[in-house]
Amino acid sequence: MSAPQMPELPAEVAAAVERAAMPDFDRWHEMIKSAGGCEQPVRLRGERLTVDGETGELIESYSTADEPTGFLITGCGNRRASRCAACAEVYRDDTYHLIISGLTGGKGVPDEVSGHPRVFLTLTAPSFGAVHARREKAGKVLACRPRKDRPTCQHGRQEGCGRRHQADDPQAGQPICADCYDYPAAVLWNAHAPELWRRLTLAVPRLITAELGITHKALREQARLSYARVIEYQRRGLIHFHAVIRLDGPDGPDQPPPAWASAELLARTLRTAAAQVAVDVPHPGGEGRTLTLGWGRQLDIQPIQVAAELEGIADKHVARYIAKYATKGAEDSGTVDRPIRYATQIRALKVSEHARRMIWTCFALADLPAYHDLRLRGWAHMLGYGGHFSSKSRRYSVTLTRLRQARADHAAHAARQAEGLPEPDESRATITTGRWTYLGSGLMHGEHFWAEQARDRVQQARAIRNQITESENQEKAS
Ligand SMILES: [Zn+2]
Ligand SMILES: [Zn+2]
Ligand SMILES: [Zn+2]
Question: Which of 78, 123, 201, 352 is deepest in the core (most CB within 10 A)?
């Protein structure tokens, strides 16, 4: 009779058990938990000293040489959910708080801000050629692009499409004829979208002064325009802008807006501005021609209401929507989430054919002197767009830096409590210096399991907390 065999553990679990048996595991586990289970944790070596600013007395010292691990872990802080789910969640939470505090108050913004006129704006790109689309009417999927006379384009392809595309159809957003599609103009539009946005934010105050018959100086003394915005990639590879736009008193949300300020005025001037604003660029066809880029005709403007029952859109809904897009990249348009270095890589990229053409076009245009400044090679993976995913004007609400500092302070406080250390004397002037060396990033053998577990735990805690806030809000409302 042979001895009973132990069932063999799956390799991943065996590695996790092995890691847990190492002497530095407890401390490492603690660090990865406080990094929220980051998928690409950064390992640092170094020290931090806090001294009294007047006497030079050493108040606190920390060195990774005293750590069982020999290093300190911090989260990668990546905004993109496709790169690090844990850090993207933190970013999404922060963005939510940043947006909602500009709508309902909180985090240093007075509650009165909820009475200021504000709208939710969606701006689109114009069309650069027909694309397959899912069309729906009253819950029924309609034909993509029905054409009775069945015309063909100059490339001999059908101009229409009678299919009914489902939501997950990979064809949705792809051009009906890639050779008819104006790729250079599409890429140049993405590249100039930040400039179109900037011109829009300048045009609105100009239109308000014209309508009221007041000078710019008078406007600055009475009101201020604040905004927070994100971009979203459509499947056709062009970007949308979603923004909260608000009218405040001259110094921002702390001051009441002037009596003439209204959501209608905001909506009206935004509509006019979106139709007027344009950027002229050298035409890709050359010969001294100009290509004029403007916003698409489709735009949506809705007043943001405190409660959803009124006409308009609810503030929490807006904040959730914006926070969701803040952690996305361009992946939804079928491209990749990191820069492409060489043209030779493009052929092998796992991207949609449409995205591949956009990327090729970026590389091709980048070589033309007229477009050098656009750095289209560097932004090819973004299909030409080189701006920020989210941004806000200075006085919209709290900043992400302040939210992060508040979280760091809270964590430091919790750590001191756990170790029974006294709170620092706030009245004392201190100087903190640190010297850090980057050791590397990523998870090592056997660590993935534990990081995933930490991530799950954070996720659960977040879900419970959200449920509690939700029921508290319902209680408040009833
Ligand atoms: Zn991370
Ligand atoms: Zn179609
Ligand atoms: Zn064609």
Answer: 123
Q: pLDDT tens across 370-388, in order?
A: 999 999 999 999 999 999 8
Counting every residue, how long is the chain? 478
Query: What pLDDT shows up at residue 4?
Result: 61
Residue 208, pLDDT > 70, answer: yes
pLDDT of 470 > 80? The answer is: no
Q: Provide the pairing of β-strand 299-305 with 313-314.
A: parallel
Q: Which ligand is nearest to the CA of 155?
A: 3
- 24 CA distance to ligand 3 middle (Å): 63
CA 357 to centroid of ligand 3, rounded, Å: 15
Cβ-proximal residues to 10 (8 Å cutoff; 6+ apart), any chain: none
Q: Which ligand is nearest to the CA of 131?
A: 2
Averaged pLDDT score across all residues of the chain: 89
- Residues 135, 227: Cα–Cα separation, whole Å: 32
Judge residue 343's burial from the number of C-beta atoms within 10 Å of its C-beta, 0-12 exposed, 13-18 middle, 19 or more buried: middle
Residues with Cβ–ion distance below 5 A, ligand 3: 153, 155, 177, 179-180
Range with lowest mean pLDDT among 330-339, 343-352, 414-423: 414-423
Tell me if residue 228 falls in helix, strand or coil: strand
pTM of the entire predicted model: 0.82
C-beta of residue 230 within 8 angstroms of C-beta of residue 322: yes
Question: Which residue in 333, 386, 379 sits closest to 355, CA to CA?
Answer: 333
DSSP at 179: T
Banded pLDDT at 2 (limits 50, 70, 90): low
How far, in Å, from the CA of 154 to the mean position of ligand 3?
A: 5
Q: Which residues contact 44 (CB under 8 A, 6 or more apart)?
A: 64, 71, 72, 73, 74, 436, 437, 438, 439
